[in-house]
Design goal:
189 residues, alpha+beta, Alpha-Beta Plaits, four-stranded antiparallel beta sheet, three-stranded antiparallel beta sheet
Length: 189
């Protein structure tokens, strides 16, 4: 009897391990950022913008949807009119970024695992407030100490911060924010 229980428990453990490996295998890898990447909300080349970027891969679409900021990437997940069959959400890993101007073409972090700094003086892709992503919490805290803001996880992200608290879409919100003094007056390295 004990052998039967032990075998059943072992089989259940293998089954659960297989399920978690299967879930990880289902998540497609990130795409490398190229000159062809156009922002979903701004319609501009993503590489033309400083700061962290993002990409979302849908379950039935074998291409990335690109975003000129991490904030716009998160907005996509919150807007009711956008597709919900999301296979992966990646944002620039600022823990590995070369600089604010060049966050990197291949250093991505799963947005659901990232640590975000919100409310900092740094401005994102279209000069709007940014949710600056890091793979390491210590890096996020150091950034917040230097540039202001607070550290939050994906599940704790304030919807009002991402969507602007109003009825504007991320692109409209970005276009309405014309104050670019922070982009010129601060060291972004």
């Amino acid at each position: 009897m004990r052998l039967s229980i032990a075998i059943t428990a072992f089989a259940a453990t293998l089954l659960l391990a297989g399920c978690s490996e299967e879930q990880q295998a289902v998540m497609p890898p990130p795409f490398a950022l190229t000159q062809e990447a156009m922002g979903r909300y701004c319609g501009m080349n993503v590489l033309e913008h400083a700061g962290p970027k993002g990409q979302i891969i849908l379950e039935q679409v074998p291409e990335a949807i690109w975003f000129s900021s991490a904030r716009d990437t998160l907005a996509f997940t919150m807007l009711p009119e956008e597709p919900k069959e999301i296979a992966a959400i990646y944002v620039s890993d600022m823990s590995k970024a070369h600089s604010w101007e060049e966050p990197g073409a291949e250093n991505w972090v799963d947005a659901r695992q990232a640590f975000f700094v919100i409310g900092s003086v740094q401005r994102g892709g279209m000069g709007a407030e940014e949710a600056v992503p890091f793979s390491k919490e210590t890096d996020a805290r150091a950034f917040a100490t230097q540039h202001g803001g607070q550290v939050v996880g994906f599940n704790d992200m304030p919807k009002d911060y991402i969507l602007g608290g109003g009825t504007e879409t991320p692109a409209e919100d970005s276009l309405l924010d014309t104050d670019d003094t922070d982009q010129k007056g601060h060291d972004h390295g």
